[in-house]
Amino acid sequence: MGRATFLVLATILAAGCVSALTRVEIMLSARDLPDYDICCSSPVLPPDGYAVVYFAPSNLDDYFEEGTTTILSNNNNPNWPEVFSFNVAEGNTTARLRAVLWDSDVDDDDYMGSAEINIADIISAFGHSVTRSLQGAPKGDGKVVVTARVNGTLVHVPVDSGFRHARHLNYKSLNTRT
Ligand SMILES: *[C@@H]1O[C@H](CO)[C@@H](O)[C@H](O)[C@H]1NC(C)=O
Ligand SMILES: *[C@@H]1O[C@H](CO)[C@@H](O)[C@H](O)[C@H]1NC(C)=O
Ligand SMILES: [Ca+2]
Ligand SMILES: [Ca+2]
């Protein structure tokens, strides 16, 4: 556990708001995204994909936007480098993550579908990444792959991406969310 991570957790525990939090840090990839770029009678090209990540602490429809990945251009199988962090009360079975995928374009971006994943499924997937089919994808197919580090323990990382390259977009805990 990094010093900063330890201090954040120690502060939360010392404040007595939460007895035990499981820290989940996730990275997203997509697989088999269809081509979404059509230009000027040229062939259809792979998308310039990015993901918007939302977090719902409970099973109410109360999603918070956590952040957005970088755009990985011309790629049907992007491995986004960003890390998104969530603190989940131990044993919580209702917290969920939603990833909404877009193809960046000069004009309006194309919606590529979304996937919802229970944080509990990510926590219990030790040793494996979690894969979900994209829902509502206009061109069908496509999957979202979640790789995770739980309480500082690496679960799985795709070959050509890694936590060491990651930018930490969001380290605030649920307790400090306003
Ligand atoms: C993560 O750490 C917290 C605090 O030590 C602990 O209560 C919890 O059980 C851990 N979660 C997992 C999934 O190991
Ligand atoms: C955990 O579960 C309760 C509902 O039982 C919910 O109110 C709470 O916000 C949940 N979320 C997290 C992240 O612990
Ligand atoms: Ca497009
Ligand atoms: Ca595009």
From TrEMBL:
<feature type="domain" description="C2">
    <location>
        <begin position="1"/>
        <end position="134"/>
    </location>
</feature>
<dbReference type="InterPro" id="IPR000008">
    <property type="entry name" value="C2_dom"/>
</dbReference>
<keyword id="KW-0732">Signal</keyword>
<dbReference type="Pfam" id="PF00168">
    <property type="entry name" value="C2"/>
</dbReference>
<feature type="signal peptide">
    <location>
        <begin position="1"/>
        <end position="20"/>
    </location>
</feature>
<protein>
    <recommendedName>
        <fullName>C2 domain-containing protein</fullName>
    </recommendedName>
</protein>
